[in-house]
Every structure is written in structure tokens, then in C-alpha cells.
Amino acid sequence: MTVLNIELFSAFLLASALLVLMPGPVVTLVIANSLKHGTRYGISTSLGANCGTAVLLIAGAIGLTAALTLMSELFDIVRWAGAAYLIYLGIKEWRSTAAVLQDAQANRRKSFKRTFIHGFLTGLTNPKTIVFYIAFFPQFIDAGLPPAPQVMIMTASFIAVAILLDGAYALLSGRIRPYLMDAKRAVLRARITGTLLLATGIGLALARRPV
Questions:
Q1: Domain range holding 39?
Q2: Do 75 and 172 touch, CB atoms closer than 8 A?
Q3: How many domains are there within the chain?
Q4: I want to staple 94 with a disulfide (CB 3.0 to 4.6 A). Which of 101, 125, 187, 194 is the partner?
Q5: Quick check: 5 and 142 in contact, CB under 8 A?
Q6: Prediction pTM value
Q7: pLDDT in tens, 36-76
Q8: How many helices, marked H, and strands, marked E, lie in the chain?
Q9: For residues 48 and 75, what is the distance between their CA atoms, to the nearest angstrom?
């Protein structure tokens, strides 16, 4: 029994890839953490972000309208809190000195869990995902086929595409990191990371609440 319209599903995969590739809060945070800590920390950020994304998509897929309504009500509070924290991190990076950066390098292991949590909160409040689910997701559902299998497959596919492409961002950013490891370049790396974190925070602050 056919459960997917292949043409619609192909279009959905393309739209998903384009959405993930567009610079946004998750992408900038993945790049920032990859530059600061290394590729594996960018990947942990990506995994955290996509866990947050999965919460949104699964909640919508199983019809938790009450949960989505509550999420919408709390959206601004969570978004502003996340934006303020990311802006704080960005300013902190900008003010870093070479000595501070060397001390931070020694404590890198503590950052793995932290980058995952940062990613999760950013993914959970990422306006791109919410708008995508509300405005675009229904357009790829074939009304002539059972909706539940389509939604399940598309949700899993979206997460897989996001993990793959966010991981590519982490890998590419991690490849640049070794060239920014000496004392002078470490400060430059901190400036770049700080700018990306500030951009992420400002992006969240400017995001509109979904209607």
C-alpha cells in the first residue's frame, strides 16, 4: 500500500534542505560552537537543536493542540530569555583575552553538555521550524493517502536532513578552527564566535511570534 506521494515527498525534502541551509539561529550557533570548541561540540549543538525541533514537530504531528497553544503563549518569554543569554555569551566572547581563552580551552570538556542544551533551547524556540510546520508542512500532505504515515515519515525525514546539513556546517567550521588556535588568532576566533552568538541572539529577539 502506498503511503507517500513521491513527487510531493521529493519536493518536501528539497524544501527542508533549503530551510535548514538558510542562516538562522541554529546554523549560527552550530558554527559559533564549532569555531570555539571544535567539530564535536558543533555536532552536539546540532543534536540538541534537532531534539528541540523534534519536540515541536512531534507535538504537532500527534495533535497536541493544547501543548502547541501553551508553547505559543510562552514563546515570547522563552525567546527573549534565550536571546538575552546568547547576547550575553556573545559580549563575553568579544571581551575575552588570550589568557582567558587558554583557561577556557582547559575546561572544554565541560562544554559538551552545555552546547547540547544551548542547541536544544534554540531549536525549541526557532521560529523557522514553527512557521515551516504551520505554513508549509500541510502543503506536502497528499489528501488521498492516510495522513498519519505521511506525517511520521516527513517528520523523521526533516530531522534527518537537519542533522546531516547542520553536521556539515559543524564539520566545515571545525576545519577552519585549527588556523585560529595561536594566541593572537584565538582572540580573532573569539571575535568571530562572539559576532555569531550576538547574531543568533538578535535573530531570536527579532523573531515574530507565530499566529
A1: 6-11+26-206
A2: no
A3: 1
A4: 194
A5: yes
A6: 0.78
A7: 888 999 999 999 999 998 888 887 777 655 555 555 566 67
A8: 9, 0
A9: 18
